[in-house]
Automatic annotation (TrEMBL):
<feature type="domain" description="RNase H type-1">
    <location>
        <begin position="288"/>
        <end position="415"/>
    </location>
</feature>
<dbReference type="GO" id="GO:0003676">
    <property type="term" value="F:nucleic acid binding"/>
</dbReference>
<dbReference type="InterPro" id="IPR012337">
    <property type="entry name" value="RNaseH-like_sf"/>
</dbReference>
<dbReference type="InterPro" id="IPR002156">
    <property type="entry name" value="RNaseH_domain"/>
</dbReference>
<protein>
    <recommendedName>
        <fullName>RNase H type-1 domain-containing protein</fullName>
    </recommendedName>
</protein>
<dbReference type="Pfam" id="PF00075">
    <property type="entry name" value="RNase_H"/>
</dbReference>
<dbReference type="GO" id="GO:0004523">
    <property type="term" value="F:RNA-DNA hybrid ribonuclease activity"/>
</dbReference>
<dbReference type="InterPro" id="IPR036397">
    <property type="entry name" value="RNaseH_sf"/>
</dbReference>
Amino acid sequence: MFADDSTIYCKGRNVNTSKTIMQNAINEISKWEKSTGFKFGPAKSKSILFSYKTNITPPHIYMNNILIPPTNDLKMLGLNLNNQLNWSKHIKFLKTKTKSRLNVIRAISNRTWGANSIIIMRTYKSLVLSVIDYGSVIYGAAPEAILKSLDPIHNQGIRLSIGAFKTSPIPSILCEANTPPLEIRRNMLTYKFALKRLADKNNAISPYLFNTSPPSLHLKKNQPISTRIKKWLDTTNTPLPKLLSPTPYIFPPWKMNLNTNTSMIQEIQNIEPSEIPKHFNDIILKNFCNHKIIYTDGSKSNVKTGLAIITDEETFKFSSLEINSIFTIEALAILKAIELTEQNWKNTKSFLIASDSLSSILAIQSQGTANEIIKNIQERASSLAPRSVTFMWIPAHKNIPGNEKADLAAKEAASTNINIPKLDLSSFKDTARNSLINSKKIHQRLWDQELNNKLHKIKPFLSPNPNPPSSTRRQQVICTRMKIGHTNISHVHLMRRESRPNCEFCNSAPISTAHLLLECSNLSEQRKIFPHLTLRDILSIDNFNHLITFLKITNLYNRI
């Protein structure tokens, strides 16, 4: 149900059985309608039978003895569906809609007086890419040939945004804009969608997202979401994380048993660093002398992540998922400490959990957090009543013995040479960020294959492309075209179907960016403004002003 629209569906192998189930459901809705005052319009409703078979007659469904009109296609929540779910009509609709929106990009992307390329790129993402993204998790099941018909829209929008010449290779355009192809973007969005449902075990589609059953015979026609997700996991070599299920708070805010202590934030400003351990001990003796002190810490290395929980008597170490942020690791350490208070120290009345992660302590202190790990800490701390737990922030690396031991133990847990229990918990934010990182890695692999590409020789790694300071639109376009190696003076002959021209200065070699900036013998005097530099250096942002000067003195500035 969405607003005043309701959808009823039934999945089955036998049409007659499905029809009976559907008709019974409609009959029950009709009874409910009469008892509540709601009114449905059978004439305004539609019924559709989704099947790959072409010789099936759509069943007739009735509401209040009025036939619900059967149809072969319909529009639902902005998606155009047809009875074979091949998405051809929806893709055609997307192409029509996005082509009209590209006119806005054309209007502001004039290479002489147009807007800043970064602004145009943001406009493209807001007006055009957002339309393509909407529903891509669903229509991404369409055959590859149909999906590829959207690629020219994406490529043209990016080309207009950065001002690349019309003959520029597509891999170069995507690299210069630091934007992945649509296929990679669709797969990333599908995986993020699945992650959100992975945590919610009660979601109706959760069982279908990671279904490992043999693929359907119709796989060549449509790729189910489970197949696409598995392909993404295999391509990125990503283990499936465990996410805490989103649940409402059990305790109302006024019954939350959350005690936090951040007094040392201000107090350490007025004391010498060498006095901090003594000051901490004074706080313990004054306020927490009857508490069991638990120190927690997390560590992240290039290879692994780890966390530790320390008391006077015991040390607990755990490794964690590599994708986890330091915030998540620190929060997991606190959560594990709470679990230990429930399991190992049932006779202890009061606990003090000391952590050097201020962000974790402040998150625990706040109400209405969206982070399920923090929410779990809050719930479990409150459920300890009548026992109490206090979360205290302590400064790191200030020779507080418990904190130093926890720091050392966490670093050991994050090393690769010890065998300890592993926590496979993560947060949605970390897994979503990791999916973005993986999409960039896949794009980089594609870019690594473009060994003969002109831009690849000066920009082998994908990276953001900032505009030169105080540059005009014309200068940004010039810079982009020179780096890609496709300019008006060197490649307009392709559009005119003419032979490739020689350099007009020396007439001894075909004209190209590299020839003008490095090789032309008749321009050696003009090139003295950037002597002994490689093509990558000349086209870097540091030599932008020298490049513009060179183009002006050679009368090439208005011909790029």
